[in-house]
């Protein structure tokens, strides 16, 4: 099942590395990553798409704990997988 997360984070050099480490450690496969600097220099908008059969809350609960993450929202899930 694919999940898309919209993340707002501080624009720090290591924030993407930390996000990817947690994602990998929790057993999710990276399916897509988009980074967009926000108008303010200190902000970064990240769209992270992951794939796994595991419940997504296992990943989101860990990403919320990262101190560089300001906001995290589950944007979408693979609808076909939800119907199965």
From TrEMBL:
SUPFAM superfamilies reported for this sequence: ACT-like
InterPro entries, alphabetized: ACT-like_dom_sf (IPR045865)
NCBIfam families (UniProt xref): PRK11152.1
Protein name as catalogued: Acetolactate synthase, small subunit
Organism (species): Arsukibacterium tuosuense
């Amino acid at each position: 099942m694919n999940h898309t997360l919209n993340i707002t984070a501080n624009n720090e050099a290591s924030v993407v590395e930390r996000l990817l480490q947690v994602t990998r450690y929790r057993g999710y496969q990276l399916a897509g990553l988009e980074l967009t600097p926000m108008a303010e220099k200190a902000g970064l908008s990240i769209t992270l798409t992951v794939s796994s059969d595991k419940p997504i809350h296992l990943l989101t609960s860990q990403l919320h704990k990262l101190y560089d993450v300001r906001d995290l929202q589950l944007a979408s899930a693979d609808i076909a997988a939800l119907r199965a």
